[in-house]
């Protein structure tokens, strides 16, 4: 007696193909729905990272300037070559909402690193933290300062100065602060704070 072996079934049935097609369609719909959101979220993450990097850079610039501060008498203006007016025994003009001082800037050249005293000031204008600099420790009234926007959407800025305690101005013109604390109120990031020690030697 010849017994025929049943051949295994090859291929898919119509029902299996319909189920597979339905699953593929559902996956495609889900992917099409989620993709724009995923792309939008990625763009938002990149935007936040860029903004955070800018904030970190701005705070680092402020800290670096203060740490290079040169404590020296501020002599301005000149009534005569023989009798200048000494405004303070340090060069810091420190108020609660603005700050100005001299700092030592290093510039590398082919032969050596040269250092020159610059003047810098920080202030708030139109919700922007502005850094202004000029390449002299004693600028004249008609000299042009270079200006750069460090941060935008800033609601307020406060400077505090550490003497015997933290205070909002430098009423004592004979004593330089040990450190300066900057508090920035940002619309997006809330309160940001940096404390910089004054390590500049007298020049």
Short description:
The chain has one helix at 14-67; strands spanning 74-78, 84-88, 93-94, 99-108, 113-125, 128-134, 146-152, 154-162, 166-167, 179-186, 190-197.
Task: Give me the secondary-structure category.
Answer: alpha+beta
Low-confidence stretches: 77-86
Domain tally: 1
**What would you report as the Rg, rounded to the nearest angstrom?**
32 Å
So what's the overall shape? elongated
> How many DSSP-defined strands?
11
Total count of helical runs of at least 4 residues: 1
Q: SSE order, as H and E?
A: HEEEEEEEEEEE
Biggest sheet, strands in spatial order?
A: 3-4-5-6-7
Give a quick account of the main beta sheet: strands, pairing sense, barrel closure.
5 strands, antiparallel
Helix % is 25-40%
Report the sheet-strand fraction. Answer: 35-45%
Q: What is the average of the pLDDT values?
A: 79
**How many angstroms does the end-to-end distance come to?**
116 Å
Commentary on this structure:
The chain is an alpha+beta fold and 203 residues long. The protein has one domain. It is 27% helix and 37% strand. The chain is built from one helix and eleven strands; from the N terminus they run H-E-E-E-E-E-E-E-E-E-E-E. The strands form three sheets. The chain has a five-stranded antiparallel beta sheet with strand order 3-4-5-6-7, with helices on one face. Strands 9-8-10-11 form a four-stranded antiparallel beta sheet, with helices on one face. A hairpin with a 5-residue loop joins strand 1 and strand 2. It is elongated, with a radius of gyration of 32 Å. It starts with 13 loop residues before the first helix and ends in a 6-residue tail after the last strand. About 5% of the residues have low confidence.
């Amino acid at each position: 007696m010849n017994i025929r072996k049943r051949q295994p079934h090859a291929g898919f049935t119509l029902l299996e193909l319909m189920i597979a097609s339905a699953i593929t369609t559902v996956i495609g719909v889900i992917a099409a729905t989620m993709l724009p959101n995923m792309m939008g979220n990625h763009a938002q993450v990149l935007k936040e990272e860029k903004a955070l990097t800018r904030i970190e850079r701005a705070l680092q610039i402020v800290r670096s300037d203060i740490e290079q501060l040169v404590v020296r008498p501020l002599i301005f203006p000149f009534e005569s070559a023989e009798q200048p007016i000494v405004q303070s025994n340090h060069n810091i003009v420190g108020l609660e909402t603005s700050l100005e001082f001299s700092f030592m800037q290093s510039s590398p050249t082919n032969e050596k690193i040269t250092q020159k005293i610059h003047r810098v000031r920080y202030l708030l204008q139109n919700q922007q933290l502005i850094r202004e600099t000029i390449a002299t420790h004693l600028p004249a009234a008609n000299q042009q300062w270079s200006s750069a926007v460090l941060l935008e959407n800033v609601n307020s800025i406060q400077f505090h100065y550490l003497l015997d305690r933290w205070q909002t101005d430098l009423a004592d013109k004979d004593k330089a602060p040990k450190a300066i604390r900057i508090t920035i109120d940002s619309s997006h990031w809330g309160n940001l704070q940096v404390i910089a020690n004054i390590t500049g030697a007298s020049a």
